[in-house]
Design a protein that fits this description.
12 strands; alpha+beta; Thrombin, subunit H; 6-stranded antiparallel beta barrel
Length: 317
């Protein structure tokens, strides 16, 4: 049998020579690297590899994902803006259509309701108190209405509501109750001027309007406390101007009055007669009823506001 071939290194085997002590202590030649032990060389190469291929930290990953998220959001917003259809400009036809649609679907308040809303904060309940026959008990002598014409608490009412009262009580629209004093009288027009002792912080005075342009047929609203109920409102028209009235007892004769047909009853006395703008043109003062019923049959009278304003020294219009 042939023998298997035996392979050996092509380099000749050298026998180790004993190095002389001086050669072992010689420094390496210039430009030549100092040979390192195999273990140290492997460790240096491993450290260098780790330095090159070190994985990023958690903070670096978070920053990277945050940047990706921001860029994605910006890209999506840009694409949405590009795909969003352009909004057409609003035209006059669009505005007219919107107004018409609102009018068709919404019921606006009536003119009378707007008038009541405007005057309501200035209307007060007025009660005159007296003593009973034995003077031991306080009783109501008269119930009527008043209207604030100056926001400091100056009120107009009828003289017959408060005449002879030992005490006058006022209730404002916000519910505040107080007393008042008579500071002026105009007997020929059945008017009294009151000063409230306390007033609400946001007291609103009524707006007064001249009767110069007032005509029969103009719409008016009477606001007050008929029979103590209220505030109540009734609507009607101006029936006539420059009327005269004499009380059933013949004790009062009034002239230059506004005649109106808005319902008024005892308790309306001293209340405002207003236009549909909520402006005061008169102070309700009397009703005409030939019977003893003392109820409204369609004819009421109001003192023109020019006369009423002069009662408190306010200049005419």
């Amino acid at each position: 049998m042939p023998r298997p071939a035996l392979y050996s290194s092509s380099r000749p085997t050298r026998r180790p020579l004993a190095a002389s002590p001086p050669e072992q202590n010689m420094p390496p030649a210039e430009g030549m690297a100092t040979p390192q032990p195999p273990a140290q060389a492997d460790m240096a190469q491993t450290a260098a590899t780790r330095a090159i291929f070190r994985p990023p930290s958690k903070r670096s990953w978070h920053a990277l994902w945050a940047a990706v998220l921001v860029l994605t959001t910006l890209l999506a917003a840009s694409l949405w803006q590009q795909q969003r259809p352009a909004r057409a400009p609003i035209t006059q036809d669009d505005i007219d259509a919107a107004v018409l649609r609102t009018l068709e679907t919404t019921t606006p308040p009536s003119a009378a309701a707007r008038a009541v809303d405007a005057i309501a904060p200035s209307v007060v309940r007025v009660v005159g108190y007296g003593r009973s026959k034995n003077r031991k008990q306080e009783i109501e002598r008269g119930i009527g209405t008043g209207v604030v014409i100056v926001d400091k608490g100056i009120i107009l009412t009828n003289l017959h509501v408060v005449a002879g009262s030992d005490r006058i009580g006022i209730t404002f629209s916000d519910g505040l109750e107080t007393t008042a004093s008579i500071t002026g009288i105009q007997a020929e027009n059945d008017l009294a001027v009151l000063q409230a002792h306390k007033v609400p912080d946001d007291l609103q005075a009524a707006t007064l309007r001249s009767t110069q342009n007032l005509r029969p047929g103009d719409h008016v609203v009477a606001v007050g406390f008929p029979f103590g109920i209220g505030p109540s409102a009734s609507a009607g028209v101006v029936s006539g101007l420059e009327r005269e009235f004499t009380s059933p007892q013949g004790k009062r004769q009034l002239s230059n009055l506004i005649q109106f047909d808005a319902a008024a009853n005892p308790g309306n006395s001293g209340g405002p007669l207003v236009t549909l703008d909520g402006e005061v043109v008169g102070i309700v003062t009397a009703i005409l009823n030939p019977t003893e019923a003392r109820t409204f049959i369609g004819i009421g009278f109001a003192v023109p506001i020019e006369n009423a304003a002069s009662a408190v020294g306010m200049p005419p219009f």
